[in-house]
Amino acid sequence: MPQHSPFSDGRLLVVAFEGWNDAGEAASGLARRIVDAMGLEELRDFDGERYVDYQFNRPEVGTAEDGSREITWPRIVLHGPGPDAAARRVVSATGTEIDRDVFVLVGPEPSRTWRSFCAEVVDLVDVHAIDAVVFVGAMLADVPHTRPISVFVSSDDAAVRTALDVDRSTYEGPTGILGVLADAVHRAGITTLSLWASVPHYVHNSPSPKATLSLLDKIEELTDVTVPRGSLLDEATEWEEGIDALAADDEDMASYIGQLEQARDTVDSPEASGDAIAQEFEQYLRRRERKDGKDGGTAGGGFRPPQPPQ
Length: 310
Prior knowledge:
The protein contains 10 helices and 11 strands. The protein is an alpha/beta fold and 310 residues long. The strands form 3 sheets. The protein has a 7-stranded mixed sheet with strand order 2-5-8-1-9-11-10, with helices on both faces. The protein has a two-stranded antiparallel sheet with strand order 3-4. Strands 6-7 form a two-stranded antiparallel sheet. The longest helix is centred in the C-terminal third of the chain and has 19 residues, at 274-292.
């Protein structure tokens, strides 16, 4: 991290949405953990009638403390520091207390009128004089749960790529609100950074605290904002052990995980060459084709690290 950077000492906005961009609830889990840890307050509640499809993101009915029935509606909320200046004191990764204004935008992925939504967010970035925006997502990928969760970091800003030694995304195809909003914010002249965690696709139905933990580690490394882990370390361990137990009773699952581990270890090996990596993944894809009896989608194309849909 450079000594002076909008990500290390500027007013920072963290953006995460539930849904397509949020495999294992890793991104939204990170965002809400930041809100709770820093005691951020609600600054803006976006109009759900305008942006949220309630057939896709259903409201929930429950019982209030007084025994009455109540409806809880899905909400997209901008959180930020309240009037208490002490809430803005943040401990950096170096252990130094600094004044940081951190904002968090979190909620269900908007289902309609994305351009209007992006315009609202860009206006709020201007109103709150935000210097930099970090977009956080998580995608399902062919990765093993037994290895560290990888986080792909990218930026459209050439200066950021040079300063932080990160890549520019080469993904082409359908995108989500994170990609659209990142483009709008970048075009407005705001410095941006995108983080995407790769979550094992074979456990997509459950939250992944291990992925949330990896995103926390990465955002701390890049922004100097430290968020207490609390029980997250124990939850990540329990998550991994629970999948281990399932695999122990499922020979096919265990074999598949073993193939993913072998492929991952080959990529991570210091002596691995590009040709060796490509050959290993081509073999892995062919094995999957024979097993599944269908096209693997990328066979014959060599190894290409998974790119987030942004």
